[in-house]
Design a protein that fits this description.
The protein is an alpha+beta fold. Among the domains are: 29 residues, no CATH class; 59 residues, SH3 type barrels. 20% of the residues lie in helices and 26% in strands. It is built from three helices and seven strands, in the order αααβββββββ. It is elongated.
Length: 159
């Protein structure tokens, strides 16, 4: 008569190993539950307790090096900045219609409609739009300059 008929000769060894591991786990859990008993490992890896009220999160600037170095490149070096060709200024005609003017001691603003996109723009004196700079604003005229070209746009009153 066979004592074990498990079909595999390895089964009794696995059963014995699981009993030994279970006993070891029971002893360790019993030692862990005893208050005031610290093992050498716990004493060496003691972590200071930080209270929630005294904790301040680090600023975003502390993580700049992490965010600037790409994760999936060799050596985690950022790619070289691509060389940009100088932007050629289009020699397109000025397609604006003057809709209104606002003049105050602090600023001179021309309210214009871009005829190519049909959008309203508020341009202060000295700002540029499509290579054209607003150089002068009067009560009825806005003057734009590009290079040696000057274009005056007159305010058309609705009747």
């Amino acid at each position: 008569m066979k004592l074990f008929s498990f079909g595999n000769h390895l089964t009794p060894y696995l059963l014995g190993a699981s009993v030994v591991l279970g006993g070891t786990l029971a002893l360790e859990s019993r030692n862990a539950m005893q208050p005031g008993v610290e093992t050498d490992k716990q004493a060496r890896t003691a972590v200071p307790v930080i209270e929630r009220a005294s904790y301040k999160a680090p600023s975003i600037a502390a993580f700049n090096e992490i965010t600037e170095r790409p994760l999936f490149t060799q050596g985690r070096e950022p790619p070289a900045e691509p060389e940009q060709a100088p932007v050629a200024v289009r020699n397109s005609p000025l397609r604006l219609a003057l809709e209104g003017v606002a003049i105050s001691p602090e600023a001179e603003i021309a309210v214009v409609r871009d005829l190519s996109t049909n959008k309203m723009l508020h341009l202060a004196k000295g700002t540029k739009h499509q290579g054209w700079e607003l150089t002068q604003v009067t009560e009825t005229v806005a003057t734009f300059t590009r290079g040696k070209q000057n274009v005056e746009i007159k305010l058309v009153e609705d009747k």
